[in-house]
Here is the input.
Amino acid sequence: MSRMLPQILLPESQNEPSLTLPAVGQGTWYMGENLVPRQQEKDALRYGLDLGLSLIDTAEMYGDGGAEQVVGEAIRGRRDDAFVVSKVYPWNAARESAIAACERSLERLDIDTIDLYLLHWPGSIPLEETFEAFERLRDQGKIRRFGVSNFDAGSLRAMDALPAASECATNQVLYHLGSRGIEVDVLPWMQDHHRPVMAYCPLAQGGRLRSKLLSSSVVNEIADKHGANAAQVLLAWVIRPTSSNPGAPRPVVAIPKASTLAHVKANAEALTIDLDAEDLTRLDNAFPAPREPVSLDII
Ligand SMILES: NC(=O)c1ccc[n+]([C@@H]2O[C@H](COP(=O)([O-])OP(=O)(O)OC[C@H]3O[C@@H](n4cnc5c(N)ncnc54)[C@H](OP(=O)(O)O)[C@@H]3O)[C@@H](O)[C@H]2O)c1
Here is the structure.
């Protein structure tokens, strides 16, 4: 019997039933910028889809729309294999501008509907107005669900006062073994409200901690124990179960960006690594979570 791979559960929303997705997806920041051949980026994303990494995260910001175009080309002919997440700039998130921004994203992605549309970070446009636009987009069938990104606990509490807050499907935030601030207040809030967190930079891209994490003797010893490598342990840690039932939906989905087939394969295999209590204790001791609230880490 094949084993159940870890999944997250997106709650049902007004027009959509609840939905499970693999707890590892694919990021696209820096794609579509000619840093590596475009074909290589498309091949990586398509290989990820082959391996079941259906959630693809992008944004109008990445490559100035270039990443959305790469995603559009990668999913052409296999739309049903992909769950497409895109994000709107905060300054494009007003009543009318959000509609126009979404339409531009749809055009670049070459699809009719974005599965999940996020406000990229909090801005000066009232969230109520952004959510109104998101609800309109959903009613028009241009998006299926909506959510937020880079919201700290205070922003989440403020959001909760809005009628549309119950429709907010996720909060995408920076989270990796070297940056655990969300465990104090953001992650508990999301769990209390039965919404998964989407973890960006799960491999600490751009962070000074990346090499420290990847070369950590604790991380590497645990990797050896599981016949894995350090990056895979970092991903398995981000998506670890928090209940005693390993089959329960995971509270966090990791969205590593990979532009080589080897990295995509490694990231998909991270879904099969079960860190045990001893591993988790060793990682906690080496990279403890803060005890008090800290400001939200962003990149
Ligand atoms: N909401 C936000 O504000 C926000 C901010 C940042 C990122 N994001 C999203 O989150 C995604 C992930 O974050 P990120 O791209 O910043 O950082 P990341 O996923 O932590 O790191 C990406 C880097 O790790 C490398 N890599 C991937 N898989 C690997 C593996 N198995 N072993 C070793 N190295 C590996 C990649 O190399 P190769 O490319 O060479 O494979 C790339 O250099 C982004 O792409 C984006 O979609 C959202």
About this structure: The two ends are 42 Å apart (CA to CA). The longest strand covers residues 143-149. The domain at 7-286 is CATH 3.20.20.100 (TIM Barrel).
